[in-house]
Amino acid sequence: MSKITTELLLERAVPRSTRLRKIETLNLSKLQLKTGDLDPRLFSRLRHLQKLDLSDNLLDKFPNSLTLPDLRVLNCNNNKLEDVTALKQFPLLEELTYENNVYLTLNDDYKVMFLLENLRLLNGKDITKLANHVRRVNSRKLTSKVTAHWEKFFRDQLPEKYTTEQVKSIKEKFLKSVQTNVVYGPSSLSEFTRWRVKMIAEEFLSYSLGLELNSDTEPEEKMDENEEESTESPREAAEDVAQVVYIYDPLVTVTPSKRKRNHSKSGAGNKRSKSQANTEEEAVVKPLHFLQCHSKGNSHEDFKTQLWSCVFEPVIDSGARKDPIVSCSKTVATCGGESVCLIDCETGTVLKKYKVATEEFFSVAWTTLTMVISDSRKKAHNILAAAGRRGIVKLIHVAADFCYGEIKAHKKPIATVCFSPTQETHLFTASYDKRIALWDIGIPDCDYNFKASQLLVLEAVSIPLRIALVPTCPEQYLLAGCEGGCFAWNIKLDKGQKSRPFEAIFQFPDDESMTTSHRVDGLAFLNDDVVVSKSSKPGCIYLWSWSRSFDAKGKGCQRTMSAVILAELEWSTTDMSYLTLSTCPAKDYVFCGDEKGSVWMYNLSNYTTAWSSPKGKRSERRISPTQILKWPELRLNGEQLPEILVNNVVSDPAFSYLVVLTSVNITAIWKKS
């Protein structure tokens, strides 16, 4: 609940007031306020506010729509501000102070001087002359340099009659080149200069040459080095999201046919007998948002883009590697098609959107790096890795809205990626080239220079689809579900061998015998020992013990080991592949979607204690789901959506939200109440 209420605003007004619209001076200092406490709906009623004191709080940024049209004086001293660009929403601001915000630099001073044309005093100093120089002389010099760069290097590349693809290619090359090569002023202002150069270059392309920056024309799918990358603002991203109306009734299911897969078998597997019922209490989970934010070319008619991967952003201040329950925010990264989106699960807002026109993203993963930002100061930042069909890993500094680099990891598509929980720069990439590579992505400096290096290559005999580091020894063993079975590798870096074969392949029951030959398209750890895997065997998900299955003392490679099965989970009888599963270890939950849009949920808290004992017995009967979330009836412009396949379903560590990714370009967000 927000700390700010109508009563508080009236009480803190100077002098006290009886009406919000009459308040002209407001003191909100020393209230331990965070950004989320500044409710735009409440602040929009302060139409005549002229002076606002927010000093001595915990603000890291300003919301984009506080709507204070008459604000003249703002005090933000002693906060945790990281960015000042949102202050442009206060165009009449004359006096601004933000001293003792350790993450703000001289570059931010120049940004506010440019953005706020009426600003006279900054941190108590008269900046009128300097601000005029920044807005006029500096801008004129940079505009001249940007224009000259275009004339010298790019004008002749644009033919008289050009296609959309040619425009996008030249625009991308120009924006990259101009930010790298146009230099002006001291090096201490290089961040501000790059920021202004990009702004000027975009305006130049849009207005001077008539090259629009946001074309909805779909680009050709071709694999080249000149893909278009773009990062959209929250407002731009929101405009790309179709509003899908849902009616919460069970959807009549139909046979899936969109993928090149075998059709579903009889749906009788969805029925449960009373003797098989899982008696755990059902969670109350309600549909919250249904978003269409990964459309190709931003088309609201796109119901073909497949969504594949999602992961919740870690909260930097919570000690993410120590307490998983508090290690994630309400923000989730999703990927599919040409784009990666960051979504606020509570509001359904698409916060940011990153697109590469020639890419199809299959996987995303987060890590937190401690970077040197300026003046040798260090700060932790979340970095998002995204990879897919082109075999390239994109590294995105989310807070800066900037893709600062890429790693050409494989020559074939990357199926999945994951970071080490103990080594924040270590990234595993699993590819269709039948290799899993371990990379050290390095730490970028203040100019985003970085050096990536390959540390290890794990040779697989078939395509790796899912990978998981063993929780009790994440620096020694990696487990992978592949097209041809389930494998384990020794990944310890003190061994001399850089390219390694698998150490073990696991056997699983197959009717009356054991087999290693089966597709494993779902793999995750439920706790430190229990592995959950889904194979091509219809209607079944296995739970098995890592410690009792893997013989760490044995010698040699490529050994065959029998998985010690603890239980089987009843699931759909479909033989469709690539409908993956996930776990919520803190709550003992397993989730898996099916071919009819439903989410199967298993609360296993009654079983985990017994399984943890050295001689824990196998559960005799298949464990049925605690509950099945049926896909609600969705309509867009009055039309019912086509058949739904659930490709992936992921909860945050506390199981507050459930994010469902589908085959029809719909991201569904459910909330546990």
TrEMBL record:
Keyword annotations of the record: Centromere, Chromatin regulator, Chromosome, Cytoplasm, Cytoskeleton, DNA replication, Kinetochore, Leucine-rich repeat, Nucleus, Repeat, Telomere, WD repeat
Gene3D superfamilies: Ribonuclease Inhibitor, YVTN repeat-like/Quinoprotein amine dehydrogenase
Biased composition (Acidic residues): 215-231
GO cellular component: centrosome; chromosome, telomeric region; kinetochore; nuclear origin of replication recognition complex
Domain named Leucine-rich repeat and WD repeat-containing protein 1 WD: residues: 285-672
Domain of life assignment: Eukaryota
Chief site of localization: nucleus
An individual GO BP term: chromatin organization
Region described as Disordered: 215-237, 257-279
Molecular function per GO: chromatin binding
Per-repeat ranges for WD: 407-441
Subcellular location: Chromosome, Centromere, Kinetochore; Chromosome, Telomere; Cytoplasm, Cytoskeleton, Microtubule organizing center, Centrosome; Nucleus
Ranges for domain Leucine-rich repeat and WD repeat-containing protein 1 LRR: 7-200
Family that this chain belongs to: Belongs to the LRWD1 family.
Family matches, as PANTHER family: LEUCINE-RICH REPEAT AND WD REPEAT-CONTAINING PROTEIN 1, OPTICIN
Protein name per UniProt: Leucine-rich repeat and WD repeat-containing protein 1
Taxonomy of the source species: Eukaryota, Metazoa, Chordata, Craniata, Vertebrata
Gene giving rise to this polypeptide: Lrwd1
